[in-house]
Amino acid sequence: MAKKDKKNKDAKKAAKQAKAEKKASKGESKLKKQSKKAGDDIEDDIDIDALLEQLAAEQEQFEAVHVTNIDKPTKRTNGTIVAAPMAQRRELFLFGGEVANSQGIVHFYNDLNVYSPDSDTWRRYISKNSPLARSSHSMCFHPSGIMVLHGGEFSSPKQSTFHHYSDTWILDVETKEWAKVDEKRCPSGRSGARMTVWKNYVILSGGFRDLGTHTTYLNDLWLFDVMNYKWTQVEFPQTMSMPDPRSGHSLICYNDELILYGGYTKVKAGKGLQKGKVLTDTWTLKMKSDIKSLRWERKRKQGWQPTPRVGCSMQLHKGRGYLFGGVYDLDETEETLSSEFYNTLLSYNCETNRWFNSKLKARKKKEVFKKEKVNRDKELEDILNEILKNANLNDDDDDEESESLKTDTDLESKAASDEEEEKKKEYPVRNQMPHERFNALTCVMDDTFYIYGGIWENGEVECNLDSFYTIDLSKLDGCTVLWEDLSEIYAATADSEDEFDDDDDEDDEDDDEEEPTDVKLIAEDEEEEEEEEEEDATPTIPDERPWLPHPKAFESLRNFYVRTCAEFLTWVIDQNRDTRGKGLKTKAFELAETRWWERREAVQMEEEELEESGVEAVIEKDFSKVTKRR
Prior knowledge:
With 630 residues, this protein is an alpha+beta fold.
C-alpha cells in the first residue's frame, strides 16, 4: 500500500513538473512572438563579449578623426580662427562659418581646418563627433592644450528662422578630437560672444539672441574652469555700474586685468523699431580668485581715439590689443543705410590706456647671415660671461662649456633655418593694408598678425572676401599676401557703375515726381555719453622707466639687445641676487624685450618723422674699428 502511495505521489510530481515546463515553453514562445512582432528578436545565446567589441568598434568609428591635406579652406565668413602656440607644434585653428551662394542660400560648416606656419600647409580634420555646423560662435585657446568652444548660430537656408546653440565643446589640440561638456548650468544660447583666458579659466562675455521679432543683447560674464569643466556665472551687485549689453566687442586679459572695449547693440527707435548703436567705451575688471568681489570700472579716454567702428575685435600681443578693419554706419534710416569701411591696424596699449595707428613701412632687403655675424654673437657671449665672472655669478665650468657649445649650435641652427626660409615659397609683400572689410578673422602667434577673410558691402550687395594675410608686428614692414580673391568686389563695383549710368539717364524724367521722405531713425532711449575731458594728443609718450636703455629708430629687437645687453645684465644682477649664469642671461633678454616693446610707439613716431624728412635708416659708426685718414 505504501508503495502504491509513493507511485501516486511520484506521478503527481512528474505531471506537475511537466505542466510547469509546458507552461514555461508556452510563455517563451509567446514572448518570442511578441518580440518578433515588435521587431526586437531576443536571443539568449548572444555572445556578450562579441557585442561589447562591436559597440567599441562603432564608438571608435564615431570618434575617428579623418585628416586630409588641402591647399586652403573653402571660402567662409563668421567663423573663428585661433592660434595655438604649443611648444611642440604651433598651429592656427579655423572652425565653422557660413557662406551664401548667388541665390542667397546659406550653407554652414563644421569642419576643422588647421594651418601650420612652419610648413606652410593646411589640413582638414573631420569627425562624426564634431560640433554641429554653426557660425558666429566663440572659441578660445587655453595653454593647457585645449580649445573651448561655446554657442553660435544656425539658420534655415534662406535665414527665415534662427537657432542659437548653448552647448560647450572641448578640442584637444594635439589629437584634434572633440568632446562635449555635459554641464546643465552654462551660458544661454547666443552668438557674437567673446572669450579670453585668465589662469585656469576661460572667460565669456556678452553676445546676442535673435528671437525673430526683436534681438536681445547680453552683458553677463561667465568663467569656465578647465580643471573640472564647470561654468560659473559672475554675479554683480545691482547698484554697481556695468557695461551695456553688447556683442562683437573686444575682450582681452593682460596682467590679471580684464579689458572690454566697444561692440554693438540695439536700442529702441520708435514703435516696433530698433536702431543700431556703436559702443566706444572701455571697461576693466581686476581679476581675483574670489569672484564675488569682482567689480567693473570704466576707463577715461586719453589722447587720440579711433573713430567708432564695429566688426573688429582686439588680439592680445606684448601688452597691446591689435584691431583691424571694421565698419561704421554713417546714416541709418528706415530704407537706406550708408556705411564707411576701414582697413587700418590700430593698437591699444593696455598699460597706458592709449590708442595708436600702426602704419606699414617699406620692407628692407633681408640681411644675409654671414660668418661676421657669428663672430659678433661670440663677442656678445664673451662680454656677458665676463660680467658674470667679475660678479662671481658664473655657472660651473661644465655648464659654461655646455653653454658655449649650445650657443655655437644655436648660431649654426639659426643659419640653417635662415637658409630654409630662403628656400620656402615666397609670397608677394605689399606696402599697404588689405582692402577695407569688417568681420575679418584675426589672431596673433609669435610676432605675426594673421588676417583671414572678411565682408565688404556695396549698397545692398554683400561681398565675402576669400583672402589670407600676415603682418610682422615687430617690423611692420609690409603685408604678406598668402592668397587673395577680390572678384566679388570687382563684380559689385562694376554693377553699381552700370546702375549709376542708368540712373543718370532717368534723372530728367524723375525730376517732376515727388519722392517719399525717408525718416531717419532716432533712438528713444539712447543716452548721451558723458563728455570726458580728453588730454591733448601730444606726440610725446611719457617714459615710466627712463633709467633703462632706450631703443633707437629703425633698430630691431636683436640689434637693441646686442647694443644694450651689458647694461641689462648689470641691472638684472642687482635685482636678482639668487639667480646665476644662464638664468641671469635669460632675465636680461626678457627685460630688453619688454623694454623694446614698451617704447615701440614712441620709436615708431620718431621713425615716421625721419621717413618724412627722407631718412630710411640710421647707420652708426663702429668705433671699435680704427681707420686712418688718407
